[in-house]
Structure formats: structure tokens, C-alpha cells
Amino acid sequence: MKSGIILAFGLLGAGVAAVAAQPATRNWVATVATTSAGSYVIGSPAAKAKLVEYLSYTCAHCAHFVGEASTTLKRDYVSKGITSIEVRHAVRDPLDLAAALLARCDGAARFLGHSEAIFAKQGEWMSKGIEFHKANAERLQGMPQPKALAELARGSGLTALVQARGMAPAKAQACLASKPATDQLVAMSGEAWQQRKIPGTPAFLINGTIVAGAMDWAALKPQLDAAIK
Question: Cα(103)–Cα(87) distance, rounded to whole angstroms?
């Protein structure tokens, strides 16, 4: 009996050592890389399905897609290492540009959280932003672009939104005034609209091929599932 107990504890100890020796599971949802063009890639670089999403923050279909698909994509695809998501901006208007600059302001690690929060409140800040622009169109037109963007961000409530998420006011203003950041988004948008010629937003690529007609999760999911089989 004693030898059996010793053997059992010996096996248990070996099992514990084996478990301890195994590497921790990688949190792929929190793994974000930056491409040379400035887009963010969330997930495993070895993912079988590489999903690219072209988005605009003033696009209602984009907000709908994020609302219905984000949780499922992160939980069932990205977290398992089978899918990565590259976010590319296809900016359509000044309010969209201000939102993109603020979403990216804290860098790759906080981008996804900021982006989802901006989409979640799209109805609120867009309505305020449109009204603010109507009331201040002439004044905004006479301003330098960085100042006009800062005014739009403030008037729409975008600045308050990211500050509530912990972004310092001075940092938000610096990002809105950043010419390199603005130029990068303009170049990224040029690739989307002029070179890739996407039909609208959201638009998706899977492993480099555009997914025709996919603007919602119901249309995209079968194509994504086929790519990971």
C-alpha cells in the first residue's frame, strides 16, 4: 500500500511538472501587429484564414457588422489562432478621419477597444457631428485642417468618448493634429478606393481575394469557414 501511495504521488508530481512545462496559451486577440502601411493585424501571423476588413467610422453597415460579428470573430476564430483580422481604413469624410485618428491614437495595443467603442456609439456622435458641421460649416472651412478636425471631434463628442476611455486630452489633440498620422490614413484610403477599388464599406478580403457581396456576418461567415477547413 505504501509503495502504491508513493508511486501515485510520484506520477502526480510528474504530471504537475509536465503541465508546468507546457507553454501558456497565447492570447491572440491581444496580439496586434502593425504593417508597413500602418494597418493593424489582430491575431496569429500563422492563421490559416487572413481576413482583411476595410472600414469607415461613418458607415452604418460597418457599425452593424462590428456589433453583430465582433464577439464571435474574436471568440471562435481569432482566439483559436485560425483567423487573423487586418483592419484597413477607407476614410470617407472629415468626421471619419477624426474618428480614425483617435481610434489609432494609443497605438496598436488599444486600437481594437477604441475602435469598437467608437462604433458602439456611432449613432450618438455622428448625429451631433452632422449638426455641429451644419451650424459651423463656414467657420470650419476657414480653418487649417488640424484645427477643423479638432473642432469636429469636440463638437461631435468623439474627443469626450476617447477621454472617457483614459486618453489624455493633450494626447488626443496631438493625434488629431499629426500630419504623419493623417497622411498615413489618406494613403491607406487611396489604396482602398483608387487602387483596390472596393465597392463600399465594409469590404472584405480572405487570403487576398475580395469577398463579393459580403457586407454582413451572414454573408461572410460561410466564406471564412471554407477558408479554414
Answer: 12
- Under the banding of pLDDT at 50, 70 and 90, the label for residue 25 is confident
CB 215 within 8 A of CB 115: no
Residue 38 · residue 45 · CB < 8 Å: no
3-state secondary structure of 59: coil
Single-letter residue type at 29: V
DSSP collapsed to 3 states, 157-202: CHHHHHHHCCCCHHHHHHHHCCHHHHHHHHHHHHHHHHHCCCCCCC
pTM over the 0.70 mark? yes
Residues 6 or more apart in contact with residue 95 via CB below 8 angstroms: 57, 58, 126, 129, 130, 133, 152, 156, 158
